Amino acid sequence: xxxxxxxxxxxxxxxxxxxxxxxxxxxxxxxxxxxxxxxxxxxxxxxxxxxxxxxxxxxxxxxxxxxxxxxxxxxxxxxxxxxxxxxxxxxxxxxxxxxxxxxxxxxxxxxxxxxxxxxxxxxxxxxxxxxxxxxxxxxxxxxxxxxxxxxxxxxxxxxxxxxxxxxxxxxxxxxxxxxxxxxxxxxxxxxxxxxxxxxxxxxxxxxxxxxxxxxxxxxxxxxxxxxxxxxxxxxxxxxxxxxxxxxxxxxxxxxxxxxxxxxxxxxxxxxxxxxxxxxxxxxxxxxxxxxxxxxxxxxxxxxxxxxxxxxxxxxxxxxxxxxxxxxxxxxxxxxxxxxxxxxxxxxxxxxxxxxxxxxxxxxxxxxxxxxxxxxxxxxxxxxxxxxxxxxxxxxxxxxxxxxxxxxxxxxxxxxxxxxxxxxxxxxxxxxxxxxxxxxxxxxxxxxxxxxxxxxxxxxxxxxxxxxxxxxxxxxxxxxxxxxxxxxxxxxxxxxxxxxxxxxxxxxxxxxxxxxxxxxxxxxxxxxxxxxxxxxxxxxxxxxxxxxxxxxxxxxxxxxxxxxxxxxxxxxxxxxxxxxxxxxxxxxxxxxxxxxxxxxxxxxxxxxxxxx
Length: 611
Description:
Elements (H helix, E strand, L loop, with lengths): L2 H26 L5 H34 L4 H16 L5 H18 L2 H20 L10 H10 L9 H15 L1 H5 L7 H12 L2 H7 L3 H16 L10 H14 L4 H14 L5 H16 L9 H22 L6 H20 L8 H15 L5 H15 L1 H24 L5 H5 L5 H14 L8 H4 L8 H7 L2 H8 L7 H9 L22 H17 L12 H10 L7 H9 L1 H10 L4 H19 L1
Helix pairs in contact: 1-2, 1-3, 2-4, 3-4, 4-5, 5-6, 5-7, 6-7, 7-9, 7-11, 9-11, 12-13, 13-14, 14-15, 15-16, 15-17, 16-17, 17-18, 18-19, 19-21, 19-26, 19-29, 19-30, 21-25, 24-25, 25-26, 26-27
């Protein structure tokens, strides 16, 4: 097959599969009739495995092309492929970045500045949305480097196409807005990049070519918006005087939205000492309520999303102000944060699965972390956790429920036979059957919380994970403590979160930095590890496994690895309890669909109640 045919086939099938995958996922949130819903779930399961096979075959062919020398025609086809992926909102970073980097290598040798500028921007965007939004550190990835390469090529402005010229200002936009938001160290550079952008835009060179170019004027408008809504970076900065001078210039020389004028007016009043912190907080809260009205919901339009982004910016400012100051009454703090937080959660909940980008993943997790620190009771924290996982990661939520049910079933049987199986927990104060089972239940439910910071990877079910993605997924045990801000309320559960992928003998698994052998919760870790493996290996409804195992096959694997990977005492007990084996066979088999249905109907019910 020729390169042209391979690329065309890959483009058509991948776009088709991504759209179909999203449609299947969205339909699970819409159908109410059990039989219709069940048929859709089973169709989805079969379709995902077919997509997986087709995508893998095409990806191998694409990577073969990328590893070889190719001609300009092939490069142009790959370039158009990447552009079409962007137009269809297909941000599969691991694939896109490989293609983009290979094209950059090709066009750098050719000296094609127009294509390079667009590729630098596209590559930086993919790196930013994948690596930065999910807090993945990599020595080889820094989107700022690509944006700076774009700016370096602005000296070729006369030779650039309109699209490439606009890309210069798109790079400035990202350097003054998204990058500082995701990389705190770059906040000190915002003013410098802003001044450079405005100076270049007003230069004779740009004005002689693009004085009446509305698209570039729009980019300047977006850059100004970033400066206005980013004022909180400068409130306590040694750059605040320079910042507010620039803000005055923006208000004088550009057409700014009335609400943004109100926002910067409040900030300036605080900066000048005309209002105190409490007045600033009250005014910002009222501005948030004004924007949100009776309840802003996602409608897919740019104006609607812009409104939400402003609301989120105001919320971020308020969280920052309230978190770092003790002058606001605690009751007022709680009232404001509850209203703001749950309003934003409701908006996020209204975003269809297919349009839920890494941006929403990122702000969902940030929103949760901000709200968690202001919850007054452990029950409120639990409720918030459920809302976070249930609303945005139903597959992870179902997995947590399955692991909880499997763990509790095993624990209940073992306790009934001999409570001394759990002597380690008894020594820690879980000295009754009820306390033991309650601990096992909650620890199992919380074990995978770290996946809330890896949703962009976890949700990829239509192709094989790359080495980078799998490496990142292996960080999810440690991400649990990051998500929870090391909240001491969860201290008794951290060992299970950290240890459920370590092997029983302590010689394997991850993270190796956690010594499960020394944990006082070792038996609970071992139990939940077995439950985790039991669900994961038998689930072909939520995962892309081409061949699902039944429970009996999985039990054979538990027996083969007992004493090394799995606790032999627990495995031997499972072998000895026929009633338990029957239950585990049912819940991982014919009854799994019922659990899926119940969870999705719960989501549907909550969404209806929020409308």
